[in-house]
């Protein structure tokens, strides 16, 4: 079983049993699962679809569980038409067609976590990453961020004040006024 699927299944089991940490001999450290979002049932259904797909060999190592899915198949992340248009414009401004939109989550920000977005090349995609194909571009999400981004909606506004990408995350308990930080 792939690393992502194993991690998520173990995390879901720990949440269901009330356990807050587990010792993994493979990684040699305790892994906290107390910050998992409350959308485990939707995540579990999506992992059934993700775990059966593999990225093309040119994009990953052979052992990774990542997959290439269409947006409809994945059901992971909704991107509004205005955000799709803006991401496509950014991609078109680059010198190469071999570029992907990477979304993620990192520790930090006003509420505990902050969103990350970047354009990356094929060499920056690992076998554990999930690739979701949208109209005009592909979105890459790492396994840890997948848990926090599941069910999120990304929108874009070109207003002079308060414009830019907007994140609507059903897993977030707390959000910051800046709109790019959240807590679970």
From TrEMBL:
GO terms for cellular component: chloroplast stroma. The keyword Metal-binding applies. Pathway: Cofactor biosynthesis; iron-sulfur cluster biosynthesis. Residues 77-179 form the Core domain. One of its GO terms (biological process) is iron-sulfur cluster assembly. One of its GO terms (molecular function) is protein-macromolecule adaptor activity. Residues 1-24 form the signal peptide. Keywords: 4Fe-4S, Iron, Iron-sulfur, Metal-binding, Signal. InterPro entries: ATAP, ATAP_core_dom, FeS_cluster_insertion_CS, HesB-like_dom_sf, IscA_plant_cyanobact. PROSITE patterns: HESB (PS01152). Transmembrane segments: none annotated. PANTHER family: IRON-SULFUR ASSEMBLY PROTEIN ISCA, CHLOROPLASTIC (PTHR47265). This is Core domain-containing protein. The lineage of its organism: Eukaryota, Sar, Rhizaria, Cercozoa, Chlorarachniophyceae.
């Amino acid at each position: 079983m792939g690393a992502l699927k194993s991690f998520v299944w173990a995390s879901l089991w720990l949440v269901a049993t009330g356990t807050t940490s587990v010792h993994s001999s493979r990684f040699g450290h305790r892994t906290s699962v107390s910050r998992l979002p409350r959308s485990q049932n939707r995540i579990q259904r999506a992992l059934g679809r993700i775990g059966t797909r593999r990225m093309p060999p040119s994009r990953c190592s052979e052992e990774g569980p990542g997959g290439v899915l269409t947006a409809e198949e994945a059901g992971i992340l909704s991107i509004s038409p205005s955000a799709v248009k803006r991401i496509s414009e950014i991609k078109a401004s680059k010198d190469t067609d071999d570029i992907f939109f990477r979304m993620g989550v990192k520790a930090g920000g006003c509420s505990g976590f902050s969103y990350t977005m970047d354009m990356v090349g094929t060499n920056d995609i690992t076998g554990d990453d999930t690739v979701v194909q949208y109209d005009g571009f592909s979105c890459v999400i790492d396994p840890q961020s997948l848990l926090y981004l599941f069910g999120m909606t990304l929108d874009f506004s070109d207003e002079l004040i308060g414009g830019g990408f907007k994140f609507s995350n059903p897993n977030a308990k707390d959000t910051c006024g800046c709109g790019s930080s959240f807590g679970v």
